[in-house]
């Protein structure tokens, strides 16, 4: 394996300079705005898209599952791509693919809707994995601040796309054009990131100096799943992704089925995302103190359980209460990023843990949106599917308790295994 890596091109580092620093921060903000806008804008328009394009229940079930399936496979290829062309050029390529994919959805065709969604989600998947590496490489002294900025702008983009998706589509006269309009934001991000990709200069790789190098070794990636914390992080990432993308995909449809206007349902989805912004600030501040990490996780877990109860049991007039509690629950994602960033003995091991958690997690989580749609079709209502999500949220609570049970020194190793074969977690 070492011999194969010697042919890889060297990593890329940006030259120091105020304009590069400022442009890099602006790029982080713009990429964050893009990473959920392409998903939540579609969720708010699923009802109108089905009415205009006339696709059946199968396509309706497949569409919300595309992001998680794509994230699993395209995300797994990111490490390989970063080694070949560098992290900046990987992100630039991802943004180009995202912009092209979203633009293709302007064509009012079921086939183009599916192709464009797959392409766009591939671009998002590459950014999902590459952006934390970009932040860690170039803003190591400000990792927490940039990660917080990144996750908050993700919520802002999701909120704007959710709230404006339906009005924008109606202003343009077509739900397909409403979807494609968000390609403009991706195109602007391409223009901002282009100078960063050009300005990057080679530097010597450090992989050879690291005998573990788990991010680049297939066996070491599997070793992540041999550690207790690696399994817990992967399991937790799976259940939170299943909950997040099931709610993002189907919340507007659920509210519309109960009599809410489509535009208002989109606003409710936007409100759910908006709540995560102040919650992220507060909970990340808690997470910086080890003894408050578990309470921060518990706040999110209890919030999503209460939000689902309200959504199931209360009339649609109380939807604001439901979505506020659900939004609080969705804030668990940046907390999980904190746990991942603190795991592993070095950056390579952290990347390995993140890659395995996202690849396995998103693949399994894709059963959420698809399964909920099939269950809804079979039962003729949303009560049963929502109780299934409630059960998943209970599992998330139990995993959170286990994940935050370890002391500062980290989890114990499994008995009978050599430390050399384990990825530190």
Write up what this structure looks like:
The chain is an all-alpha fold and 425 residues long. The protein has 2 domains: 11-204, Growth Hormone, Chain: A (Up-down Bundle); 214-425, MFS general substrate transporter like domains (Growth Hormone, Chain: A), CATH 1.20.1250.20. It is built from 20 helices and 2 strands. It has a two-stranded antiparallel sheet. The longest helix has 30 residues, at 143-172. The relative contact order is 0.14. The model is unreliable at 1-12, 202-219 and 407-425 (pLDDT under 50).
Q: Can you describe this structure in just a few lines?
A:
Helices cover 76% and strands 1% of the residues. It is mainly α and 425 residues long.
Output the CATH topology of the largest domain: Growth Hormone, Chain: A
Strand order of the biggest β-sheet: 1-2
Rg calculated over all Cα atoms: 21 Å
CATH class of the largest domain: Mainly Alpha
Shape: globular
CATH homologous superfamily descriptor of the largest domain: MFS general substrate transporter like domains
* Number of DSSP E strands: 2
Helical/strand content category: mainly alpha
Measured by DSSP, the beta-strand proportion falls in under 5%
Mean pLDDT across the residues is: 80
User: Ranges with pLDDT <50 over ≥5 residues?
Assistant: 1-12, 202-219, 407-425
Kindly report how far apart the N and C termini lie.
23 Å
Q: Give the topology string: H per helix, E per strand.
A: HEHHHHHHHHHHEHHHHHHHHH
The main pleated sheet reads as:
2 strands, antiparallel
């Amino acid at each position: 394996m070492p011999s194969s890596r010697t042919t890889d091109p060297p990593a890329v580092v940006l030259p120091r300079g105020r304009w590069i620093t400022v442009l890099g921060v602006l790029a982080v903000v713009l990429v964050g705005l893009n990473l959920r806008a392409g998903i939540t804008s579609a969720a708010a328009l699923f009802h109108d898209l089905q009415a205009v394009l006339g696709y059946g229940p199968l396509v309706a079930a497949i569409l919300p599952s595309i992001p998680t399936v794509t994230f699993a496979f395209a995300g797994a290829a990111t490490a390989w791509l970063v080694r070949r062309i560098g992290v900046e050029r990987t992100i630039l390529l991802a943004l180009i693919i995202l912009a092209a994919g979203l633009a293709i959805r302007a064509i009012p065709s079921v086939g183009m809707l599916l192709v464009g969604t797959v392409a766009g989600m591939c671009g998002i998947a590459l950014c999902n994995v590459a952006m934390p590496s970009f932040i860690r490489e170039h803003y190591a002294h400000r990792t927490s601040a940039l990660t917080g900025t990144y996750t908050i702008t993700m919520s802002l983009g999701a909120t704007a796309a959710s709230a404006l998706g339906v009005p924008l589509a109606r202003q343009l006269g077509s739900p397909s054009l409403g979807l494609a309009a968000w390609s403009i934001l991706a195109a602007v991000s391409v223009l901002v990131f282009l100078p960063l990709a050009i300005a990057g200069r080679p530097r010597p790789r450090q992989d050879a100096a690291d005998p573990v190098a788990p991010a680049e070794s297939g066996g070491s990636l599997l070793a992540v799943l041999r550690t207790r914390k690696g399994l817990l992080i992967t399991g937790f990432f799976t259940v939170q992704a299943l909950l997040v993308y099931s709610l993002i995909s189907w919340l507007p449809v659920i509210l519309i089925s109960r009599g809410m206007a489509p535009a208002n349902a989109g606003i409710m989805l936007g409100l759910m995302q908006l709540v995560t912004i102040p919650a992220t600030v507060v909970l990340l501040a808690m997470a910086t103190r080890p003894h408050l990490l578990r309470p921060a996780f518990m706040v999110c877990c209890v919030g999503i359980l209460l939000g689902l109860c309200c959504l199931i049991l209360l009339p649609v007039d109380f939807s604001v209460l439901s979505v506020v509690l659900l939004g609080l629950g969705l804030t668990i994602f940046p907390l999980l990023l904190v746990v991942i960033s603190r795991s592993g003995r070095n950056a390579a091991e952290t990347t390995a843990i993140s890659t395995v958690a996202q690849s396995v997690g998103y693949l399994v989580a894709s059963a959420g949106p698809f399964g909920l749609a099939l269950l809804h079709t079979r039962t003729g209502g949303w009560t049963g599917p929502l109780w299934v999500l409630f059960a998943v949220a209970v599992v998330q609570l139990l995993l959170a308790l286990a994940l935050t049970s370890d002391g500062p020194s980290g989890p114990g190793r499994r008995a009978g295994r050599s430390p050399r074969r384990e990825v530190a977690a």
